[in-house]
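Checklist before submission:
- one chain only
- standard amino acids only
- sequence pasted in full

Submission:
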Amino acid sequence: MLGFGETEFEAIALSLKVALTASLLSLVPAIAVSYWLARSQSALSGIVSAVVHLPLVVPPVVTGYALLIVFSPNGWVGSFLENTIGLEIAFRWTGAALAAAIMAFPLLVRPLRLAFEAVDPGLEQAAGSLGANRWRVFATISLPLAMPGLIAGLVLAFAKALGEFGATITFVSNIPGETQTLALAIYSFLQSPTGDEAALRLVLLSIALSVCAVLLSEWLSMRIARRSRAA
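Returned file contents:
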């Protein structure tokens, strides 16, 4: 009951690789979008916010199908990447990471945007008046003060990417050793008459990883916030 088989280990390892890659792929775009949404007075900000949060409200299969159209070998982006740099996205673990990144992106943007909104613009203006350019102000004032939101969002995004199912199976299928992540392995074991024990092991592991991710997010956020107040 407690031992994991080879297929289960492959799914666990692949899930961790996909989740880590997805989190890193989302990081820089999420910081840029979050900061712009927090500081923008443009009428477009509402539209951008709606687009960012769209993966949370549309069925995941819709996201996966859209990715399949764009990044399949016959899609305009997929064919371009394959013909120019030899990068295959559809039905590869890289595609699973892309799908997970898109699904996790709103969970990273939301807390980070709130953290940027909580940063006093007066501090940024004061740093600018002392001669710091916009990039230095951002790197030394805005981003460090928003770090609790960044950490919280990053851990939640990792947890979401770890458990992504609908968009992944639609976009990259369920190929053992290539695209079969933890969630897809659970689904496969549940289709087998003898797969109940393996599915239960992976379910318990998924719950444990998710709980640890949330607790780690809370602990890091409180620790960084406490350190910021002390400074």
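Reviewer check: The longest helix spans residues 196-230.
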